[in-house]
């Protein structure tokens, strides 16, 4: 009666017809004080979370957790998710019907409780499973003796003496598997230790300090150091008792998700590692369909032609399908010039690719390379900017995420070249090491000449492409990058480069304004001009030139990329160079003759005829009057100056008695009378003449 009264208080609308109650909330289970369950609602919720009650289903796939429709909301759980001891107690108390009882005891045709037992068993530790297997081995020994003719009591006694396990303990093993099928005995024999102690209470302030210290971006090395700091510097002065460190560790693992710990301590990059790496396939690509370009700074000291020493930068282009390095250029810095020259080599040797994968570095996202691309996200896109090399050739551009090396396959090639080329014997003494902490003992002893460095790098890249047994998707552990590329290149549709394409790749471009008088172009301390440039005076144009040969002519295009003219370099001449002066005179004479002929073709009217057509009588100025009149008001000293000044203002009688005031004082008093708003300067002194 007491139990029924308690249940009616918890759920007044719940009746107990045939079939009984099968769904219970955590609060109801706590008030029933069932064996195997805590009497605290919070502990039951923690158990439900740990054992994933909300995710369990029965044999038909129906969930064993549903929203609670009564007061307070929340969720309620089916009896099938409860521990066997708790469900049995509910049956004995008469709170559930026959259907729920059979489900709890596993005697019905529906085997949902058995599947749940096995699901629970799979989640247990190896120690729990080993314990269950040891018990099952003892039961098998007893049944073997029974099959030999002994009764169960004698068989249990024999096995107990042999295995050093008490006979009463073995009898409990048989009680646990009563009514179970032989293949379902193992999970029933596993110990179900629930723990009966109260959860240690952690001070809210201490827990907040502990979490804030442990989840800092600096990432303290160990949890124990944080625990000792919180205990000695926060809890001890306040008289707070801090539970054991393992208790805090379990609370941390239970309440703080693992991704939150990783993100807080190690940052967003480490958080990405929580998700498995994306697997991308190149099976749907072919050779030269997609190339990858990137820069790499070599760990070798090189001597440049001017005698300076530095680490060279290489811009390389790789075929994504085969992973073969197709073209490369070496320079002092990663620049758009190196990128343009590398693409020129690619166009000349292999053709024009369909698409290119690159990052948004200045060398690749510059206007010279990708100008006009709608997807470019570096620099501001202007309507008049020149069309870049890739954009002009219709090469699709794909941008890799910044600081995401895994999205560019060529990064793996750079690592291989560091291991196979950068530390070759030819570079002994010039190798710098791959990090500042990994410098060799002979660091900085010499520098390699640039031409020698290029020769060794070329040999290394050839060996890199020709190495057999590449374990890539297309190499399959057998072929080299060269073999994969050649097999696909033979049947691929690749655009061949024409001389115009090579010229476009080899010529840089820039937007300049022609001189407003003569139309010449002043760039790089040089002047470029031709007679056709006179018509472009003051206009903005695109100039294409070879930065490696600034003494050659430049080609002028309009902003919409239409060819206009070519302009040779105007070389400097000697001050007394007669031949140069003659050439200049001939240019001026030809210019005058051409201009005169063009003027005559216009048929301009002479001054008298033009004046007769435009003559008319003057009408005089039209009177106008302002529509808005702004009043002008004088203030301060200007207002006093505009007031009529009478002789009385300057008489001594109007100010004070002349016997009591000196001449400077009489003058000052008169000024105060004229301008009472602005006081006179205190340093005013007048000389009494």
Describe the structure.
- It comes from Brevundimonas vitisensis.
- The protein has a five-stranded mixed sheet with strand order 8-7-4-9-10. Strands 12-15-16-17 form a four-stranded antiparallel sheet. Strands 1-3-2 form a three-stranded antiparallel sheet.
- It has six domains: 2-122, Orthogonal Bundle (Arc Repressor Mutant, subunit A); 126-189, no CATH class; 204-272, Orthogonal Bundle (Arc Repressor Mutant, subunit A), CATH 1.10.10; 290-489, Nucleotidyltransferase, domain 5, CATH 3.30.420; 507-594, SH3 type barrels; 643-689, no CATH class.
- It is of the alpha+beta class and 689 residues long.
- It has 28 helices and 17 strands.
- Helices cover 41% and strands 11% of the residues.
- Mean pLDDT is 77; it is low at 1-19, 98-112, 647-656 and 683-689.
- α1 (2-10) runs antiparallel to α2 (26-32) and α7 (126-147) packs across α8 (152-163).
Shape summary:
elongated
Q: In CATH, what is the homologous superfamily of the largest domain?
A: Ribonuclease H-like superfamily/Ribonuclease H
The total beta strand count reads: 17
- The number of helices is 28
Radius of gyration of CA atoms, rounded to a whole number: 47 Å
Describe, in short, the structure shown:
With 689 residues, this protein is of the alpha+beta class. The protein has 28 helices and 17 strands.
Topology:
Blueprint: H1 2-10, E1 23-25, H2 26-32, H3 41-50, E2 65-67, E3 75-78, H4 84-92, H5 98-105, H6 112-122, H7 126-147, H8 152-163, H9 167-176, H10 185-189, H11 204-214, H12 223-238, H13 245-255, H14 258-266, H15 268-272, E4 290-297, E5 302-303, E6 309-310, E7 313-319, E8 325-331, H16 336-349, E9 355-358, H17 367-370, H18 389-392, E10 396-399, H19 410-420, E11 448-449, H20 450-466, H21 481-489, H22 499-506, E12 508-513, E13 521-523, E14 526-528, E15 540-545, E16 554-557, E17 563-567, H23 578-601, H24 607-614, H25 637-642, H26 647-650, H27 652-655, H28 663-674
Parallel strand pairs: 4-9, 5-11, 9-10
Antiparallel strand pairs: 1-3, 2-3, 4-7, 5-6, 7-8, 12-15, 13-14, 15-16, 16-17
Helix pairs in contact: 1-2, 2-3, 4-5, 7-8, 11-12, 16-22
């Amino acid at each position: 009666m007491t139990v029924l009264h308690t249940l009616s208080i918890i759920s007044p609308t719940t009746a107990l017809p045939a079939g009984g109650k099968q769904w219970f909330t955590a609060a109801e289970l706590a008030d029933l004080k069932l064996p195997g369950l805590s009497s605290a609602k919070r502990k039951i919720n923690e158990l439900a979370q740990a054992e994933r009650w909300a995710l369990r289903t029965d044999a038909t796939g129906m969930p064993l957790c549903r929203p609670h429709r009564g007061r307070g909301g929340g969720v309620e759980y089916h009896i099938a998710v409860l521990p066997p001891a708790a469900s049995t107690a509910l049956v004995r108390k008469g709170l559930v019907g026959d259907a729920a009882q059979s489900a709890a005891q596993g005697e019905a045709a529906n085997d949902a409780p058995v599947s749940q037992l096995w699901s629970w068993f799979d989640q247990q530790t190896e120690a729990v499973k080993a314990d269950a297997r040891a018990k099952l081995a003892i039961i098998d020994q007893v049944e073997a003796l029974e099959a030999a003719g002994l009764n169960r009591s004698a068989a249990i006694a024999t096995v107990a003496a042999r295995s050093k396990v008490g006979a009463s303990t073995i009898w409990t093993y048989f009680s646990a598997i009563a009514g179970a099928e032989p293949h379902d005995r193992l999970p029933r024999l596993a110990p179900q230790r629930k723990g009966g102690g109260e959860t240690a209470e952690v001070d809210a302030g201490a827990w907040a300090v502990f979490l804030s210290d442990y989840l800092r971006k600096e990432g303290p090395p160990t949890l124990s150091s944080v625990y000792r700091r919180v205990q000695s510097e926060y809890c001890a002065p306040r008289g707070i008792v801090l539970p054991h460190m393992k208790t805090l560790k379990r609370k941390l693992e239970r309440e703080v998700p693992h991704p939150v710990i990783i993100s807080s301590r190690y940052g967003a990059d480490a958080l990405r590692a929580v998700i498995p790496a994306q697997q991308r396939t190149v099976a749907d690509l072919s050779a030269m369909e997609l190339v990858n370009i990137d820069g790499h700074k070599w760990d070798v000291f090189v001597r440049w032609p001017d005698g300076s020493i530095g680490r060279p930068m290489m811009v390389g282009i790789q075929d994504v399908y085969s992973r073969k390095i197709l073209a490369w250029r070496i320079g002092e810095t990663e620049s758009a010039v190196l990128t343009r020259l590398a693409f020129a080599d690619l166009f000349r040797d292999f053709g024009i690719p369909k698409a290119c994968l690159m990052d948004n570095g200045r060398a690749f996202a510059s206007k010279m390379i990708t100008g006009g691309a709608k997807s470019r996200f570096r620099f501001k896109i202007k309507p008049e900017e020149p069309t870049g090399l890739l954009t002009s050739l219709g090469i699709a551009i794909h941008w890799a995420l910044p600081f995401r090396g895994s999205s560019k396959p060529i990064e793996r090639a750079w690592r291989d070249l560091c291991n196979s080329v950068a530390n070759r014997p030819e570079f002994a003494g010039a190798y710098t090491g791959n990090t500042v902490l990994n410098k060799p003992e002979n660091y900085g002893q010499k520098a390699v000449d640039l031409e020698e460095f290029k020769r060794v790098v070329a040999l290394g890249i050839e060996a890199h492409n020709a190495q057999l047994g590449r374990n890539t998707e297309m190499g399959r552990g057998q072929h080299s990058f060269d073999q994969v590329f050649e097999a696909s290149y033979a049947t691929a549709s690749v655009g061949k480069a024409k001389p115009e394409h090579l010229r476009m790749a080899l010529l840089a471009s820039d937007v300049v304004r022609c001189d407003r008088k003569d139309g010449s172009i002043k760039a790089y301390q040089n002047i470029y001009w031709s007679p056709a440039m006179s018509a472009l005076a003051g206009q903005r144009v695109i100039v294409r030139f070879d930065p490696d040969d600034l003494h050659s002519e430049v080609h002028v295009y309009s902003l919409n990329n239409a060819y206009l003219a070519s302009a040779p370099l105007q070389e400097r001449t000697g001050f007394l160079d007669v031949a140069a002066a003659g050439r200049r005179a001939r240019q001026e004479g030809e210019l005058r003759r051409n201009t005169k002929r063009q003027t005559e073709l216009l048929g301009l009217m002479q001054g008298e005829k033009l004046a007769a057509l435009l003559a008319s009588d003057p009408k005089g100025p039209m009177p106008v009057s302002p529509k808005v009149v702004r009043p002008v008001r004088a203030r301060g000293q200007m207002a006093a100056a505009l007031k009529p000044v009478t002789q009385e203002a300057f008489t001594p009688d109007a100010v004070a008695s002349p016997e009591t005031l000196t001449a400077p004082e009489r003058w000052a008093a008169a000024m105060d009378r004229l301008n009472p708003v602005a006081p006179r300067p205190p340093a005013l002194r007048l000389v009494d003449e």
